[in-house]
Amino acid sequence: MRSVLSFASRSLTICLVALGLIILGGSVYGIFFHAAPSDRNQSDQAAAPQAAGGQGQIFAGIGRLRIPTADPQPGMVVIFVSFPHNPQDRAFSEELALRVGDLREIIRNYIGSFSAAELQRQDEEAIRTELLRRFNAILRLGRIETLFFTDFMVVG
Fold it and tell me: Fewest CB atoms less than 10 Å from the CB: which of 40, 108, 114, 117?
């Protein structure tokens, strides 16, 4: 009986030592040889222009929207809106995070009020200006200075 307990004890000790070595080896590999984790919005942010002067970051939290047009047979508008902001301004960053739904609704209401033909004739700068005005009208803790349209396609 004693030899069975001794064998089990040795087997468990060997397993624990092997597991410890695996964990230690993985940690060393992760620290020295593994690349830094990528940002979860890297593909969206890479597509957006860099903030003016390289300062701040691009807020891409609104995401890509697909909005039906006001036509009897609705077309589709695909739009991705982003803008530079200062992530060090925590209060404004939190307000932006809380207002993402409102910002999306503003875009949907404004863009969705046009027919496909009207949107194709419309000046993109005029659309940016109006959306910027509407965004800033609801924001209290900061202002958005400029908007970027990474995608703006009218289909239909």
Answer: 40
Contact yes or no for 71/121 (Cβ under 8 A): no
As a whole number of angstroms, the distance between CA 147 and CA 156 comes to 25
Residue 82, SS3 per DSSP: strand
Helices first, then strands: H and E counts in the chain? 6, 4
Which neighbouring-strand residues pair with 153? 78
Q: Which of 26, 67, 64 is nearest to 45 (CA)?
A: 64
Q: Would the pTM of this model clear 0.70, i.e. be above it? A: no
CATH code reported for the domain at 42-155: 3.30.479
| 103 phi/psi in degrees, rounded to 5 | -65, -40
Report which of 96, 74, 99, 77 is spatially closest to residue 85, judged by C-alpha positions: 96
Instruction: Indicate left, alpha or beta for 66 from its phi (over 0: left) and psi (-120 to 50: alpha).
Output: beta
Contact status, residue 58 vs residue 83, Cβ threshold 8 Å: yes
Q: Locate tokens 């060393």: which residue?
A: 28
List pLDDT tens digits, range 9-63: 888 899 888 888 888 777 777 776 655 544 444 444 444 444 444 457 999 999 9
Please compute Rg for the chain using Cα positions: 26
